[in-house]
Amino acid sequence: MRSVARAVAAIALLSSQSGCTQDAIIGRDPDSESSDGNSVADGRDSGAEDDHAEQNDDQVDVPSRLDALPMGNSPGTGTGTLVVTGEVSATENGDNSREPNDFGTSMVVTVMRGVTPVAGATVIITWGEGRQMLEPTSTPGQYTRSRSGYQQSYVLDVIAGSDRVEGVRVMGPYVHWFTAPESGYRHAAGQPLVAQWTGAGANEALIETRFMPPTIVPDVGSFAVSGMFFRAPMGGDDHDRLQLRRRNRIVPAGGASGSVFAVSVRNAVDFVIGM
Fold first, then answer.
1. Do 252 and 168 contact (CB within 8 A), yes or no?
2. pTM of the model
């Protein structure tokens, strides 16, 4: 089947990329993520395109023959004809998780030609332990999978007919956790809170609480949250949750304008607000 041949070709390419050099991670405002595919159409009719009708589910989660992926980032290669936007997102399974196996990971990739969603593409994400072929969703041009654990380094390959984006590698942030506040900590309502976490230097960090919306902050290991966001009922206590997502991203060299591939990890801690 053609999809099988293309998947095999994409996988073979990965093993030849161990010599890739590290490239700078490119920053971007998260508000632009929803518009990555809004580039000029290439003259094709609107609606989903089906490059090949078959998807081989037997190739999902096949153990990798690579002992480990190369470290660092690589923009990869490609034909420059596909707008590929994707993210591997790890989220904590418990309060203030500390081990990579204590996270769940979702993989979401959207493939477009201009503004036209591409159906039937072969989308593969590879990590140190193996690889996974993503499945199409009900959203045209979108492919997704989920798995347990966080591997930090991921490679993306997309093949759609003669169009492709291959070997895009992102080294995600290390797993972080909060050193302040600790789980169950009691904080006075209306008072500022200095959040502190391990790790630093991610391309982007977003912090939020129950009443503070996601806010971009420098990833320097601490941030003072205003007391206006900490509220409790008169004479009682309330619960709050501090969340921090740190993200690295790169612009694929072989993708059309608007392409981006990112890897992020989130952790969270619950604490108490009192009067």
1. yes
2. 0.75
